UniProtKB/TrEMBL annotation:
InterPro entries noted in UniProt: DegT/StrS_aminotransferase, PyrdxlP-dep_Trfase, PyrdxlP-dep_Trfase_major
Protein's recorded name: DegT/DnrJ/EryC1/StrS aminotransferase (Per)
GO annotation, biological process: polysaccharide biosynthetic process
An example Gene Ontology molecular-function term: pyridoxal phosphate binding
Keyword Transferase: yes
Entry annotated with the keyword Mitochondrion: no
Length: 94
């Protein structure tokens, strides 16, 4: 990861960590998924934490966070009213 981080910084490109199977793991005294610009985790069936479907994105970059929030749940805003009803994210697994 150190080499990848240095390369990405040198070239000015974003580094994304696929930490799907690594919740709770460490690399060089840091949580896996926090070394890059964006860490992604999966919660699908064979993973350490399973919710049947879904995942998590972690970042400490405000612009990336705001973009991810705008794209989640097909771009719907939480709490936006339509026809007088509050729209909540769809979850067919409940």
């Amino acid at each position: 990861m150190k080499v990848l981080r240095e390369f990405a910084d040198k070239k000015g490109i974003m580094l994304i960590e696929d930490a799907a199977h690594a919740i709770g793991c460490y690399y060089d005294k840091r949580h896996v998924g926090t070394i890059s610009d964006v860490g992604i985790f999966s919660f699908s069936t064979p993973k350490i934490i399973t919710t049947g479907q879904g995942g998590m994105i972690v970042t400490n970059d405000k612009q990336i966070y705001e973009r991810a929030m705008a794209l989640k749940d097909f771009g719907r805003e939480i709490g936006v009213k339509t026809n007088g009803k509050i729209i909540f994210p769809f979850n067919y697994w409940l």
